[in-house]
Design a protein that fits this description.
alpha+beta, Chitinase A, domain 3, 2 domains, five-stranded mixed β-sheet, Triger factor/SurA peptide-binding fold, 47% helix
Length: 392
């Protein structure tokens, strides 16, 4: 059982490391960047009849459960309960989270993609709620007056002074007391992430050596791109994927060579393939805060072992589906040992935190307002990188 009670207003939109695989340092940078959004969050008193409602919860393939729907309050989007801890998300707060995920391009997306972005926002809200609850159970106390006031002062500076900040809060129906409560919650999330990071053992000398070699590896890969038109729905996206698979079948059966298919169907650059590191290969696909290890195209290209080997499935990345053929592999300059230890430690901590957050979803129940939420929250979650590629 998790202890503590929840204040009943919407949280500041916040990206968790579960979806972006951020390092703790990057999470702190993002936290500092998001704090000014405090005055954008709406005040909310928990409406009557909006309790946990988890008695008839439906288990899902995504890990969390979906409880009975929320009715009668159009300002609410979702309520999440984990143990005896409950948090609420307003419709306005959900829209803000969706816009952050879409990097301000939400209005450009078709309904099918907006639903995916909405689901991503709700899953991140579940993850944040779980982390706050776990932090409280562990006794992680972020209620440091000095730390909170330091961040409040940053808000005042960014708003242009106390009077302007108060005016913005008043416009949104929010009090400074509520802002401080939200800041304490986010500080608890950072405290929880630090505590989880401290549980990870330092990498061994053998692991560091393998990491240095692996990171120095460079791959040369040919590619054939099958573009998905902007705004395409699921049916059109599936059609492009099936066509890419049919071309791949021709290559694998020996009916045609990879080069021949590239000349006939390739929509990517016709420049000859060159050796590239992970970072160089990931550059066209990498989104803000995403590491090269989480880019499907890079994962598949570097997983190929032999020169001439072709990936056995089309790879979704960026604006479409790729067929990939490795034409060479070599080891370049290795990074120094100290940098390797730092990078590998950060990677292992991030992966461990992601695993912990995914496990905590099993304890959560989310209730949804059907008048505000139209995303299907019952299906399995997409693999890492897949949900981000959908909105590229």
């Amino acid at each position: 059982m998790r202890g503590g009670s929840r204040h009943a207003f919407s949280p500041i939109p916040f990206f968790t490391m579960s979806s972006l695989s951020l390092s703790l340092q990057a999470a702190r940078r993002f936290l500092r960047a998001c704090l000014p959004a405090a005055f954008l969050a709406s005040a909310l008193l928990l409406a009557a009849g909006c309790g946990s409602g988890s008695g008839d919860a439906q288990e899902t393939e995504a890990g969390y459960a979906v409880g009975e729907p929320i009715n009668g309050d159009s300002t609410l989007a979702a309520v999440v309960t984990t143990g005896d801890y409950t948090d609420t998300l307003t419709a306005e707060g959900m829209e803000q989270m969706m816009n952050r995920i879409a990097r301000g391009r939400l209005q450009m997306f078709p309904d099918s993609v907006r639903k995916q972005v909405q689901r991503a926002a709700l899953v991140r809200f579940i993850d944040m709620t779980n982390q706050i609850a776990e932090a409280r159970e562990r006794g992680i106390n972020a209620d440091s007056a000095a730390a909170v006031e330091q961040r409040v002062q940053r808000l005042r500076q960014k708003a242009g002074g106390d009077s302007l900040l108060q005016a913005r809060l008043e416009k949104r129906g929010m009090t400074m007391q509520e802002v401080r409560a939200d800041i304490r919650d986010q500080l608890q999330v950072v405290g929880y992430q630090q505590a989880v990071a401290d549980e990870v053992e330092a990498p061994s000398a053998e692991e560091v050596s393998e990491y240095r070699t692996d990171q120095a590896r460079e791959v040369r890969a040919e590619r054939i791109l099958f573009t998905v038109p902007r705004g395409a729905g699921p049916a059109q996206r599936d059609s492009v994927q099936q066509f890419a698979r049919a071309v791949l079948d021709s290559v694998q059966s020996g009916a045609a060579s990879f080069s021949e298919m590239a000349r006939r169907y390739g929509e990517d650059s016709n420049e000859p393939a060159t050796y590239q590191s992970r970072e160089e290969m990931a550059a066209p696909f990498t989104q803000r805060g995403q590491s090269p290890e989480n880019v499907p195209f890079v994962e598949r290209a570097f997983a190929l072992q032999d020169s001439g080997e072709v990936a056995d499935e089309p790879v979704q990345a960026g604006s479409g589906y790729y067929l990939i053929k490795q034409t060479g592999s070599r080891v370049g300059t290795r990074m120094d040992s100290m940098s390797a230890v730092q990078e590998l430690t950060k990677q292992q901590r991030s992966e461990y935190l992601r695993e912990q957050i995914e496990q905590m979803r099993e304890d959560a129940t989310i209730r949804l307002n059907p008048s505000r939420v139209n995303a299907d929250m019952t299906q399995p979650l997409p693999s890492r990188g897949e949900d981000q590629d959908q909105s590229s």
